[in-house]
Amino acid sequence: MWDQRYARPEYVYGLEPNDFVRQSLPHLSPGGRLLCLAEGEGRNAVWLAQQGFAVSGVDGSAVARDKALALAASRGVSLSYIQADLAEFALGEACWDGIISIFAHLPPALRQRVHGACVQALKPGGLLVLEAYTPRQLDYGSGGPPDPAWLMSAAGLSQELAGLTMELLEEKERTVLEGLGHTGLGHVVQLLARRPLAD
User: Fold this and answer.
1) Which CATH number fits domain 2-194: 2.120.10.80, 3.40.50.150, 1.20.58.1560, 3.20.20.140?
2) 9 pLDDT exceeds 90?
3) Fewest C-beta atoms under 10 Å: which of 4, 53, 128, 143?
4) Average pLDDT of the chain to the nearest whole number
């Protein structure tokens, strides 16, 4: 499905980084090692590489990977890009300064497993940056999956990311203008969650 969606010549979610990623830049360790989950065509990973981070992206789509690497080359940066299903991808242990999860909507059981893995994969002091649509997004129709079980709430994320310290966790209405895929007013949850220096 995703290979087919990304097969069009234009970038489905645009070429610019997600607004919340841009806003979160001061909270990330300069020059740190970042992992971008469900990175798609690379807009966030490439922009973060331009800011001096060592970036790895992971996504199940080979078409998205190729477009992301082409975008990186066009902007004079390099990034690592792993084509892998998140159901099978090992995030590692205490190895990332930051993990970026932008509209990475997954089936509930897999989402819980991936979020648990994020807690362990962050280095002490590492930061998870997450934005996702909430169940209220179904009333807006401006993007996101149609199944409410795939959408996220502040309360649910607090449970799934137990072990991280919440520096920001809020649900809000905002305009999301990201290519063809996300266009218009929507309802999102935004999160900055840090692994404590001493677990």
Assistant:
1) 3.40.50.150
2) no
3) 4
4) 96
pTM above 0.85, yes or no: yes
Segment 152-169, tens digit of pLDDT: 999 999 999 999 999 999
Query: What DSSP letter does each residue of the chain carry, written as one string?
Result: -HHHHHTSSS-TT-SSPPHHHHHHGGGSPTT-EEEEET-TTSHHHHHHHHTT-EEEEEES-HHHHHHHHHHHHHTT---EEEE--TTT----SS-EEEEEEES----HHHHHHHHHHHHHHEEEEEEEEEEEE-GGGGGT-SSS-S-GGGS--HHHHHHHTBTBEEEEEEEEEEEEEETTTEEEEEEEEEEEEE--S--
User: What percent of the chain is modeled with pLDDT above 70?
Assistant: 99
